[in-house]
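Quick start: read one record
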Amino acid sequence: KRIILLGALVVFSLSMLTGCATLHVNAPSNRDVRLMAESDPVHSRMIMRNWYLLWGLVPSSDNSTADAIGRHNYKGVKITTSYTFVDYLIGVLLGWTSLHTRTVYIEAQK
């Protein structure tokens, strides 16, 4: 019985650190925006944090880049997602509620 309880605790603990997340890489519909090459120079950087419920199944914040690209009038963008140390801490602290985050980096040319 003790082994079953320990196994359940391990599985529950690991479930707080896992997740999936969807990011929609979109530009505003009225604007032409190009995806930049890795070697293209960057003029500005922006960081977004996307929030998800049910370990990434349901976005609880805007998970599209269109608003950020349109608000800053970017002409070219590089977009990267990462699970940062801050995302890890949020997962450890709030993972039991199924709340997780993902960090999105938008590098751009104006």
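The mean pLDDT is 86.
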